[in-house]
UniProtKB/TrEMBL annotation:
UniProt-recorded name of the protein: Palmitoyltransferase
Keywords: Acyltransferase, Golgi apparatus, Lipoprotein, Membrane, Palmitate, Transferase, Transmembrane, Transmembrane helix
Enzyme Commission designation: 2.3.1.225
Domain of life per record: Eukaryota
Enzyme class label: transferase
Lineage: Eukaryota, Metazoa, Chordata, Craniata, Vertebrata
Annotated compartments: Golgi apparatus, trans-Golgi network membrane
Reactions it catalyzes: L-cysteinyl-[protein] + hexadecanoyl-CoA = S-hexadecanoyl-L-cysteinyl-[protein] + CoA
Any one biological process term the GO annotation gives: protein targeting to membrane
PROSITE patterns named in the record: DHHC (PS50216)
Domains: entry comment: The DHHC domain is required for palmitoyltransferase activity.
Residues annotated as transmembrane: 103-122, 131-148, 160-178, 295-314
Amino acid sequence: MKKKTKKALEQDDPLCCCEYVDRHGGRSHMAACCCDCEDLDDACDRWMKREPQKPDSLSRVSAVVSDRLRVPWISGAKQVELSLIPPLILLPVLLHIAALHYLLGIVVLTALPVIVLWYYYFTHRKKGRTLFFLSLALFSLFYMYYLFLTEVVPQGDISYLQVGVVTIGVALTITALIHTKRGPGYVRPHPSDTHSTVTYHTPPPDIDSTYHNGSRHQVVLTNHMSPPEQEAESGADPGGSLQKDTVKKNWCPVCRVVKPLRAGHCRICGVCVLRLDHHCVWINSCVGQANHRSFLLTLLLFLSTSVYGINLVLRSVCPTQSILTALFYCPDVYSQYSSALCFTCAWYSSIVTGGLLHLLVLQLINVSYNVTEREARIALREKTGRSLYWGFVIDTGVYSRGFRGNWTEFLTMSAALETPTIKPADLV
Ligand SMILES: [Zn+2]
Ligand SMILES: [Zn+2]
């Protein structure tokens, strides 16, 4: 209904770059951002009179603010996601405070990861989408690069070649990230199947045809009706009870598809993803069959660039010490604000690099055992996998074909589902 109103509005009289259709479907202008704010007026009024606030007043005010936070755009002002903004302000402010004194540095660089982790668990529990982490990741990368160019390079210890290597590293990381963001590979109903009353099925794990004789095929079930509805329609079939159980187990009531083997439903994105690994808040997207390789490549490029950049910065601000010693002991670095800021940024980058290195190692181990993050979590919960090296490795043993076979499969797997070998009609 709202969409119709918006379309009708745009067709009757196109929006100028500063106009937009607000959340109530009315035409509004960016200049009127402080007008007609009944929710905010009401909240202020109650606060002044010391009356209790309405239970939803805070969420209504925040909805109004986020609806009016816009930037001019050709076809009408675009809404800016509120969660994008805190990292843009907090990161430079906190890093500049941390550079004032080493004690402030310790406090800020300890508090920052704690706050980010707390916010991660807070949003993860609510299964809400937020651009905070993507904004923090991207802004950290650009801000570190900006400080490298404006604070480290002018000190004269960095050659043009080294600046070029860092620049290429940043550019390649962004390119790999853009590729990763193109999508994890979704389970979509096939157009020809959506009008069918017949259901496709995925093979049960014990008769897993995906790996039968080394040949690989996957099957997607799509239908308008859920398995219980189909059961009621088709009547009882004692021979197909195993298939029906599998279908029921793999049926996604949200996407209304039967998930292929290893696919999973992401509750944050609200879609089923092929060979779902995990939902990564740092890229605000799922990691699945289509983008898992580019995700690992992004991590690898980022880590290489970051380690190289930290190395250059520490060599510049603390030339008398070895790199590892310089990170922990760099005399007189706080005597100059510029070198203190570079040192603080080297520490911030080291913390981020350490976290991502841990993630990369876990990912490489998982690929070596042919286990996805989701499968490892399920195996841990249901106690069906082998826990090795103090729980660092979870081996489900279901899909593993040896180290070489697993890596070959990972590096050669197609981005989308392979052509199903069983047609829906075969199951009529
Ligand atoms: Zn789903
Ligand atoms: Zn997701």
